[in-house]
Amino acid sequence: xxxxxxxxxxxxxxxxxxxxxxxxxxxxxxxxxxxxxxxxxxxxxxxxxxxxxxxxxxxxxxxxxxxxxxxxxxxxxxxxxxxxxxxxxxxxxxxxxxxxxxxxxxxxxxxxxxxxxxxxxxxxxxxxxxxxxxxxxxxxxxxxxxxxxxxxxxxxxxxxxxxxxxxxxxxxxxxxxxxxxxxxxxxxxxxxxxxxxxxxxxxxxxxxxxxxxxxxxxxxxxxxxxxxxxxxxxxxxxxxxxxxxxxxxxxxxxxxxxxxxxxxxxxxxxxxxxxxxxxxxxxxxxxxxxxxxxxxxxxxxxxxxxxxxxxxxxxxxxxxxxxxxxxxxxxxxxxxxxxxxxxxxxxxxxxxxxxxxxxxxxxxxxxxxxxxxxxxxxxxxxxxxxxxxxxxxxxxxxxxxxxxxxxxxxxxxxxxxxxxxxxxxxxxxxxxxxxxxxxxxxxxxxxxxxxxxxxxxxxxxxxxxxxxxxxxxxxxxxxxxxxxxxxxxxxxxxxxxxxxxxxxxxxxxxxxxxxxxxxxxxxxxxxxxxxx
Amino acid sequence: xxxxxxxxxxxxxxxxxxxxxxxxxxxxxxxxxxxxxxxxxxxxxxxxxxxxxxxxxxxxxxxxxxxxxxxxxxxxxxxxxxxxxxxxxxxxxxxxxxxxxxxxxxxxxxxxxxxxxxxxxxxxxxxxxxxxxxxxxxxxxxxxxxxxxxxxxxxxxxxxxxxxxxxxxxxxxxxxxxxxxxxxxxxxxxxxxxxxxxxxxxxxxxxxxxxxxxxxxxxxxxxxxxxxxxxxxxxxxxxxxxxxxxxxxxxxxxxxxxxxxxxxxxxxxxxxxxxxxxxxxxxxxxxxxxxxxxxxxxxxxxxxxxxxxxxxxxxxxxxxxxxxxxxxxxxxxxxxxxxxxxxxxxxxxxxxxxxxxxxxxxxxxxxxxxxxxxxxxxxxxxxxxxxxxxxxxxxxxxxxxxxxxxx
Lengths: 532, 407
Fold this sequence. Notes:
By secondary structure, chain A is an all-alpha fold. Chain A has 27 helices and five strands.
C-alpha cells in the first residue's frame, strides 16, 4: 500500500504539521481517506478559534501595557528620589566618619528588581507554565549545575521575573504551539499561520505589538480563516496592532482639524502595504496617486490611547478629527466622504479586485504546493476566489480537491516553525513551556510573530534550506535527540512519521545510527521530515 | 542579521559553559559517607559507556596473534613505524593515542579485559546498548539499569543517596528507582561530526539540494571555529575532557556522589576508521584525556576509584571495503583508577583464526562483561553474589563475579 502512505504523507505534511507519535494513528487515518482527513478540520464549526484561559482581548492588553508603563515610570521616579536621599544619607554618614557605610552597593541593587516586580494586572500572568523553569535556586545548589533527575530537566533559570508583556507573549505563544501540536491534521493551523504571515505585524516594533501579537492573530485572523477575505482584510486593517505596526495612528488628514492644528499630515505606510502586500500585489495596477488616496481615506483609523478620550484605551476607534474631509478617487472610483464607511467601502472593493484574487491564489499555491506554483492550479483557485467573492474556505477546499496538490512531489522546505512543531508532534510532546520553541525559532531565523519587514517571512526553499540554517537545524535536532532520544524507539517513530513511504536510505540511516539519540536527530533531519 | 543573532547566541552559550566551575551540591549530601568498614576506603565508581561499538582489536591490539595484521589490514597497529603501539605485554599493545592510560597501566592502576562481551549476540546498536545498560540478558527490558539497581541494593543508612548522571539525559544504566542527580556542561550545543557525516551521506543520496546546503553550512562553521584559534577537530575530544573534568570535580567532594555514569558517542567506525592516526585515534585520545581528567580531578579520591569503560559490542575482525570495520561482537573493557589491581591484560584469548572467529567475522567473546562488572561492584561495594545474580544482573548466576580486579 505504498501509494496510500504517499497520500497520507501529502495529507499530513503538505497540508498539516506532520503525524503525531504515540497512539494517534494519524498516518493510518490519513491513508484511508486522505482528502477527507484534511478536510475534516474545515468542517468543525469555530474550530479555528483559539480560546485559552487567561488570554485577553486587545483593549484589555493595551490597558495592561499602559498600566505597566505607568508603574515603571513611577518606580523609576521613586528610585531617583531614594537615590537622592541615599546620596544625602551617605554624605552625612561619611561626614560622621569613623564607621564606614556597610555596603553602599546594596541599595541600588535592591531597587532594580523592584522596578521589574510582577506588575501584572491580569490573569495572563497565571497562565504560563514557564515559571517552572524560573524557580529560584534552592539551598546551595545552582540549578544549572546539578538537578535532581526526578524533576523535569529545567532550562536556565530566568534571571528576572517576567513582566506582563513577556508573560503575555509567552502565554499566547504557548496556546498557539499547543494547538498546533495537538491538532489532528493541522490544516487549519497551517492556514492560520499562512494568513498570519500574510497579514503580519512584528512583535519587535514595540511593547504594544509584543503584547498584542497573539491577540491580533486570535481576533483578526482566526475568525476569518474559513470565512471571507474581505472580512479578514477589514479586521486586520482596523486592528490596533496593525495600525500601530504600520504607523497609521500617526497619519492625519492634512485638511482635517487635527492635521490643521498640529501641522502634520499623511503617513502612507499602511495604505501602501495594504495594496502592495495585503491585496493587489506589486504590479497590481495601482499608482502612487492611489496609495496617497487610500492613505487619505483611512486617516482617522486609530486606537484609543491611555487617556481613553476617544474610547476604551486600546480599542479601535475612528477619529473623525483626523480624517481627511472630502471625496477621494481610488483606482478610478470615487468614494464619497462617509467617514469610517469611506475606508470600509474602499477595502471591500480592493478585496474583490481581480489582481487581489490573482495575488492571493498565487501565494496560496506557492505556500502549499511549490515555489513555482502550477499555473493551472493558480488559475483555478483565482476563479474560485472571484466566483465566491473571496470565500477562503472554498479556496482551501478547491486546493485539497485538486489533483496537482496530491501529485506534486514533496519539495517544499518546512519553515523553522513547521519543523519544530512537526518534531514536537512526532515526539508526542505537548509543549508546557514555549521557551525552547521560541529560542529555536530565534536561532533558525523565524522569531515568532516578528518578521523583519511587513512582507512577512519568506516562503521559498532558498530561504529555509540555506547553509547556516541547515547546520543550525542539525544542531537543534541533535539537541532534541540527546535530550529525548534515550526513551524512544527511533524505528517506531519512523513508522509514525512516514511508514513505508520512507526511502530505503532514510530507513537505513536511522537503523544504523550508533545510538537512539543519534537516530532521532537523523530522523528529524531526514528529507521526509524536512520537506513537505 | 540572523547570522549575528546566531553568533551571539552561541557565544553566550559557550560563555555560560565556563561558569560551571565550582559546583557545590551540599543539598544532595544528606547521606553519611559510604565507607568500607575494613580499610576505611570511600569507594567511587564511574561507568563510561562508549556508544557505537568500540573496535577492541584496534584499541588493544593482539599484535602477537599471527592473524591480526592480515585481518585488520591497513588500520592494524604495529610495534614499530612512525606511530608505534605501546607494548602492554608480549602479546598485546595499546593504541598510541592513549599515553595516559599506558602510564596508569605501568603504575598498575589500569587493566584491560579482552575478548569480552555482554550476552547480546546480534548487531543492533540500540538493542546492544539496552542489554549493556539494563543488565538483563536480552533486549527489550529498558526500564532500569544495573548501576541504578546496584545503588538501590547498597546497605541502608550506608548508601550513597544519588548517582550522578553526566550529560543531557540519564543513561539507561543509571535509570531506575534509586535517586540520581544530573549534571551537564552547558556548552555542548553542536551536533557531533559523526552525526553530521551520516546526514550528509543521506542527503547525498536523497536530496542533493540539502546536501549542498548542509555541507556549506558545516564548512562555514568550521571556518568560524578556526577564527577562534581552536584546533579544527579539537571539538569532540575537548568535550570529553570537559565532561570528565566537571564530573570529577563533583565526585571529589566529601559529600559528593560516589557513583556516576556517562556516555561518549561516536565509536561507530564504519568507514575511514584510521589506524595509529585518524578518526578512532582522535576519539581514543579524547577518552584518554577524560581518564586523566578524572585522575587529576578526583585528587586523593583517585586511589579509591574504579572507572569501567564499556561498549555495546565490538567490530568485525576484518576491515571492510571502506577502511573501517562493521558491527562485531567481542571487544574490550577498560578499568582505570587507583583502586584497580592493574598492569594486566586479562584475556582467555580465543585466537583470530577464521575457525575461531564468532560467525567467521568477529572476535569470539570468552569473558562475560557482567562478570567483570559484578567483580568490581562486589569488591568496591560488597554486594553479595545473590544480589548481583538476581537483582543487579538478573539471571546471571552463570556469570560469576571476577575476583581480584580491585586492590
